[in-house]
Amino acid sequence: MTPAKRTSQKEKMDVGEAAASFVACPRCSYFLSGYLLLHEDFDSAVNESTDGWLLLSWNRSVHLLVQKSFGSHIYMNLDSFQGICLECQRPYSYQKVEPETEMTSFKVKIVP
To answer: pTM for this one?
Structure first.
């Protein structure tokens, strides 16, 4: 096995480890709790994560959850936005993928 393959396998977390990484921070645990109530895709986001980032669903409810959790207001007419949790410095990123179709990506780092 090559070193590159070992590194990529080490970066993969199971769902429990990924969820536990959010618990230490009050803002991030609030975000994760709310997200889990809104969407059922957290497990698949963890399994498909690359480079330690979760690609999560985005809609109006998640938009409000980000605002309440992290204190960041992401204006819907922005093409992109990058922020960090004020408590643990976990980065997150919003980006319109295709403005004409309203497709949007929202990523959050698994481990801050």
So the answer is: 0.81
